[in-house]
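Exercise 7. Predict the joint structure of the components listed below.
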Amino acid sequence: MTTKLFGEPVRRREDARLITGRGRYLDDLGADALAVAFVRSPHAHARIRDIDVSAALDVEGLVAIYTWEDLPGALAEPLPLLIPHPALTHGRTAYPLAREIVRHVGEPVVMVVARDRYLAEDACSLIRVDYEMRKPVVGVEEAAEAVHLVHEDVPGNVGAHLVQEVPSADGRSAREAIEAAPHTLAFRLDVERSACMPLEGKGVYARWDADDQSLRVYSSTQSSTSVRMAIAAKLGLPLPKVEVIAPDVGGGFGVKIVHPWPEEVLIPWAARLLGREVKWTEDRREHFVSSSHERGQVQYVRVGFDDDGRVLGLDVNILHDHGAYTPYGIIVPIITATQLLGPYKIGAYRVEFSSIYTNTVQVTPYRGAGRPQGVFCMERTMDKIAAHLGLDRTEVRAANLIQPDEFPYDQGMIFQDGRPLIYDSGNYPEALRMLKELIGWDSFPEMKAAAAAEGRTIGIGLACYVEGTGVGPYEGGHVQVTSDGRVHVSTGLTSQGQGHETVFAQIAATELGVPIEKVSVVTGDTRRFGYAVGTFASRAAVMSGNAIALACRKVREKALRIAADALEADPRDLEITDGVVHVAGTPSASIPLATVAVLSNPLRYAFDEEAQRATQFAGGPSSMDRPPVEEGTEPGLEGRDYYSPIRSTFACGMHAAIVETDPLTAEIEILRYAVVHDCGRLINPMIVEGQIHGGVAQGVGGALYEKMAYDEHGQLLNASFMDFLMPYATEVPRIETAHLETPSPLNPLGIKGAGEAGVIPVSAVIAAAIEDAEGIPIDRMPISPSDLHHLRLETG
Amino acid sequence: MNHPITLTVNGVLREATVPARRLLSDCLRHDLGLTGTHVGCEHGVCGACTVLLDGEPVRSCLMFAVTADGHEITTVEGLAAADGTLSPVQRGFAECHGLQCGFCTPGFLCTVTAFLRENAAPTDEEVVEAISGNLCRCTGYQNIIKAVHRAAEIQAETQGGEAGR
Amino acid sequence: MKPSPFEYHAPADLDEALDVLARVGPDGGKVLAGGQSLIPLLNMRLAAPAHLVDVNRVAGLDTVEAGPGGVRVGALARHAAVERSLPAAAVQPLLGQALRLVAHPVIRNRGTVVGSLVHADPSAELPAVLALLGGSVRLAHRGGERDVAAAEFFTGPMESDTAPGELAVSAFFPALPPRSGTAFHEVARRHGDYAMAGVAAAVTLDEDLRVTAARVACVSVGPVPMVVDVTAACGGSPVAAGGTGPDWDAAAAAVRDRIEPEDDIHATADYRRHLTGVLAVRALRGAADGAAADGVAAARAAGEGER
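Solution:
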């Protein structure tokens, strides 16, 4: 059957344009637009004494130079704090252009508009900014000591402080449970900073239509609807006069969910002020120092457990490095604190975090969003328990797993969406069994011995995680069948390579019973759909997928009603196959969906042959005592619906790896990498696998290669692809995958998110495998050959 | 000072007048409107801007347009046949899900096109080496490697067909 | 990341190139050949020369000439061309061994061997090769030219003995005597990155497979390629399968003592020193094995000649 496409590895519909150079990314638009470049702070912490632009004024092609003093009204205020939280007592955000103080290298100070980017950079290089240096605060532990402050009015550099306690079933606190436990361990863990680093940086292109007094903005964003609202608010424009479109976006991974970036309000403002098209395309160096980073945390862990390795009490204290500002609130440490629990039943849990300001680039979610750190913490803990008790590491995990008959499972905490942390479904023991089989866990000791006999050092490790996906509040879908039989689907959230045009078309084709070729999908265009949240938190398929399915069901219901009228049949006897509505079992009694679309819209004017069938003199079964558009209905064969879940749905995954370490050079090679993944029902297994592959590769980067190397002055020493080491094909192992499908009971399609999954446990897995190979505790990631060499020397 | 230059791009003679410092990548994208060539780092590491210069893959961000004066250039827009038939490499990438966001893809396609011309039946190791100078942040390279092998197969099939004619 | 403006010169022949360089060299004029190291610096505005002399149109500079004495590589010979040259590989295999480690294939299509030498990055492979082999760079200026030996050519990190107005027109990589072998081993963070440490080795054996000459050149562990003669440290034992053989560990210790590594974000000085020692053993052993095989081949060739 051609129309049952849900679950099939349908080839991507995006690819035809992307492999022929016909994609339209931000910088591909606006060929005649003026270009923008910024003078950015070269210092981590300083007061601006003076800005002298005089030398730049003679630059050929210069159009305008702006500083904070030029910004009017709301634009001169700090950018919004997007996600407030009661624990974020000292949230601080930046101004679009620095006002008096700069707090990290890269903060925008002066905006230059010129005929092209070369000339804009020429002008930037001639602008002199006089800075009075202040003491930079670098490193989260140094910042916590608060010898110097990042914000004068934030004591202790503490932006937020939150404690969550989940007592044991018998009412004991975590600390009491640990005290009473037969075994206890205490240790410290470190996770370095990394960054999303999409291959396309950010970018904004704005056109002001003076005749229409309206603004059209293109932004390489993960949330066009919200950018639109932010622009309207900051520029004082009526919302209907602002449209925002996310064109083809060259990767996001989280950084493009933050909004409005300074440039997202400054470029439209300049376009309106100048009456010219204006575009800013972020270059790579800007992206390193003026977008966002993530991951940096120090964790202090205490755990108490019994002889079987069951965790009786867990007490984690996290220092979270938030960088200079908190525009995205404290979502990242909240996710770390809550998702740390993974697939386990922990006796009693206490987690405390302090979110600390430093004079570095701000921290906002990067794929995984705090989970890699949480999983690193929990899985290192599991391995340490196993080592302490002399148990197999999988046995310790098995002893703590939530069992299949225990769902829904309430972890007793509040999740990032402000709702209870209740897992909806899963089969963790089965996932663990599958993983052990896939990697050959039980036969590894022989493999290790054989390698040792050849003088080789190998080790195996695993890690498990649970990921809350599909967070609310909602997404919507709109589906319209036009009289040519085509199906036009739109949803407000955006796409950055996830294949939404394909998977949403699969859902629509399956729900409506039409060939996928008839379906087209538009995402991230506020002209088509104005209400949306955005693409993050592995939510697009769950949220928009279900919303589109629900919208399709409305369309289907209406189509069957109209067709039943035309066919003089009972709607309950009708089916839609290959775009034709027919009576089940009687294929001759049928009407094409295209014709149903025609009939759905009573016409006065016939402009083609099809339309003639819908005019008032076309006859037909409708009764003369009923209005052409009956009460409670609307013209047109279209439907709009929203999906708003009560809670997130929880996906799960377990990864294992075998690594080899060179006994002399300390080089680390991943020999095998295995993934067992459960994201409920698969819409398109090919695309889900692709998401996992990409996530694992980013995880490998975070485990072995990527860090943000700040010196004590707050200078980022590796702000280039030369020195920020993203993996090439030569650094990523072959990834073996297996799927388990435990449907979510929470949504109509039974699906769970998959976007972030791959990256989450990788550092924990690699650390475990290296630890197994070397017999040295690995408590800090990433780890380089140089690091491993020194660990060997220290442990002698 | 501006310099008049003539390039043969995708088989078409193109003229432009550019400042000496105009990077070839910017000339292709902004002077000639061929925006399929993407710019990911402008320091020669990511490979997104890779084009074929006289048939050999080079970084267009590490070359001035004036240096390319008089040379032949192939960009991603020129890989398919004139009638729109996709090249074996393009087909391989589409069939194997060798791209996600698609931003790095033009550089991979150009690099692989030249590689398969020299090595029609590569091993896994040779494929990895051939694409080792191109960064992709989405795919984890798994399906790109598959796509290159698939492209080699398609190339062998289609060339076999042509030889038979 | 766009370059500053500069005045562009595209000489068509060597004389014109040297004329232009004589004029603009003292004014900060820079030579553009492959541009794979220079243009990133220009794009980041870390360098902003007033003049750029693009020598890519100068005829006759793209030569790779292999003779019995060695290989002469012209200023416009790309890495890839030298890597593919079978005559060059036959005369001096170390060139190919090193070039395979230089960045990535696409960069090697454009980058030039001579440009890499003039750039004089102490982390780069080719300066180490030239230094190890005792080669030289030929510098032309209006009205003359001079050959500068590798030992004098590399004067500091990213500094070579090239005067304003001079154009490096070629470099000469000498052949090694019979019964010689070479190897290049390095460890980089990622494949194709500049090495954290790397060692090029050349070993020559006598008829009894005893080491008569053994030298290494190390990258990324000093201001210039660090050349160490370890002949004495190798001792008198012949290269032999399964036997004790030359004392490579003593040679490595001598190397570790001589180098001057520093910390950076990718590796500590201590690790680089350790790693250089490990790689020295591997490179010397590989070179010695090559030398032994070369000796066998030479002996066989000699035998065939006698018949």
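Discussion. Strands of chain B lie at 2-9, 12-19, 50-53, 56-59, 72-74.
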